[in-house]
Amino acid sequence: LGLILAGWALIFLLSYKVKTTEVMEAKMWDPYEILGIDNGEKEETITRAYRKLSLKWHPDKVGKDLKEKAGEMMAEINRAHKTLTNAEARENYEKYGNPDGMQTQSMGIALPKLLVEAHTSPFVLALYGLVFGFIMPFYVGRWWYNSTRYQKDHILNPTMSTFFKNIREHISQRNLIELLTAASEFAEDDLKYRPADEAALKALVEKIRRVSQIYANDMFSAPKKFTGKDVWKANILLHAHFFRVKIDDGELADQQQQVVMTALTLVHRGLLQISTTHNWYTCSTLLMNISQMLVQGVYCYDAPLIQLPGITWENQPKIFKEKNLYSNHQLMRMTAGEQRKALSLLNDKQFDEAIQVAKTIPRLEIARVLLTVVGDKAITPASIVTLIVKVRIANAPNKIVPRGKGVAVADIEDISDEDTAAIENFVADFGKREKETKQTPPEAYCPYFAGRKDSQWWLSFANYQSGKLVVPPVRISDLVSERVVVLQFQAPPQKETYRFHLSIKSDSYIGNDVMQEVQMTVVDRSTLPSEPAIVDDISEPEEDSIAAQMAQLRGQQAGARRGDDESSDED
Predict the structure, then answer these.
(1) At 456, is the secondary structure helix, strand, or coil?
(2) 474: helix, strand or coil
(3) Which residues are 231's β-sheet partners?
């Protein structure tokens, strides 16, 4: 850090010197100016001026103190007189600016005397050796070492190796969290376990176990497979976040925020990428659940109501037991009086805040799902199937969505399944409309998450029988009021009716996910209508046209050849 600050200080100093240093412009040699006459004067005037200046600056006519200057002036006066009276010298001056003709020019860099003086050369060489032999190689090497440690998603290579080796298709959510805490990022200097943290971590473990046993029916314990101290520390800090256990140690609380943000990155860019590459639907769904837990600071299978301000681990079970209130959507379907009665454990201020936040939590709906082969009325084996899904936020503040620039665009909800032409036009125009209607999503309400988080969604489409993803999940990052997603995949090769799970999960809220079962029937190609016959409606050329004359000529030549062949056969 000190070297970086010193480097910036040097840059500012050099910039100041460059700005304040006066630039001396090179002055052109001018014989007319030396003789004190105007350009183009006659030779008599030039000679008169020369004689006058010679009398003034002759070394014998001046005092001793001006003899040196007088000698320099006489040399310039003689050169100027010769230049203007000698035809060749004058021509050279007018062409090249020099009476001796064209001159070669050289440019160089002005260096401080300190760098070129003999007595300072050892120090200068030592400085060069220090900068180019030690400092620069050190920083270049460190940059190269750090760049090779990370993958393109800025995840450590050992972390991705650990994830690849240990993730499985059928893995529990608890084991996924343990695998997440085994990342090498949590063993870095700013997050790794230190003996000084032991006392604070032990006290934190006792609090987490107490809360988990009472409210989650799940006793918190150390990981069984990954037993390192760094893993244990990251696990403690994550579960303290999930159970909203307050950390009294300020430094440990700061580390917890960093652990949570790092864990969210590792889920999105690491574990989820591996799972979706294998088309694991169940594993990918569990990782999306962990994303929600990290953003909201909740444990798995918590009541969605706990996301509201004022709702805690202590009062949420009472609200559920006494009022049978579990989710935000239940709360928003009640009247104002019923809401106040259901949340009677909150004071007026807490109640107003809870209702205000509940209104902003998005309520997602699937407006339309369509499976089609563009241009055909049926889905045949191995054909390219297009999945069109329209989703909307039912409680969005703004229901008006632009669908084009000055043109009317069809809504997929208004197009019937049999209207193949309209579907084809919709799909063809979709890419252009999608670029025109990009919007900024609202910010998610997440008071337990350290950073800003936009509300985004994952759309997954999985085969019910195999439990595999048909296509990788699509990240919907610009859902404000409504959005259309278009995907394509290849139909199975067998004729059968297939069942799929279409699920849309929030990456920020729990209890907002929607799921719909979709059926697709693959039929034989013979059920498709036959293609219309192509009519060759080419008219005969007119008799007086060039085409008709060429055709007649070709016919005569063919007849002549046939006559020759017949005569040769008779012979």
Answers:
(1) coil
(2) strand
(3) none
Half-sphere exposure of 284 (CA within 13 A, CB side): 29
Q: Provide block-wise average pLDDT over 10 residues at a time, the chain (571 residues).
A: 70 73 68 81 83 82 80 85 82 76 65 64 74 77 70 88 94 94 92 93 92 79 88 95 92 95 95 94 95 93 90 88 89 93 93 94 93 89 93 79 44 85 86 66 91 92 91 90 91 92 94 93 81 53 53 52 46 41
Residue environment code for 350-370, b if the CB has 16+ CB neighbours within 10 A, otherwise e:
bbeebbebbeebbbbebeebb
Of 35, 17, 140, nearest to 81 by C-alpha is 35
Q: Extract long-range pairs of 427-431: CB within 8 Å, 24+ residues apart.
A: 427/374, 427/386, 427/388, 427/486, 430/484, 430/486
* Helix ranges, 417-495 (H): 420-436
**Rg, the chain, Cα only:** 43
**Range list of H helices, 394-454:** 420-436
Burial of 292 (0-12, 13-18, 19+ CB in 10 A): buried
For 500, the 3-state DSSP assignment is strand
**Cα 161 to Cα 164, 176, 182, 291, 439, distances in angstroms:** 5, 15, 11, 21, 37
CB 327, CB 282: distance < 8 Å: no
Q: Which residues of 221-248 are buried (b: 16+ CB within 10 A; e: fewer)?
A: eebeebeeebbbbbbbbbbbbbbebebe
List CB contacts of 235: < 8 A, sequence separation 6 or more: 177, 178, 181, 222, 223
User: Which residue has 């404000």 as its token pair?
Assistant: 480
* Long-range interactions of 432-436: CB distance < 8 A, separation 24+: 433/403, 433/404, 433/409, 434/484, 436/402, 436/404, 436/405
Give the pLDDT confidence of 403-425 residue by residue, as tens digits: 443 333 468 888 888 888 888 88
State the Cα–Cα distance between residues 480 and 400, nearest whole angstrom: 10
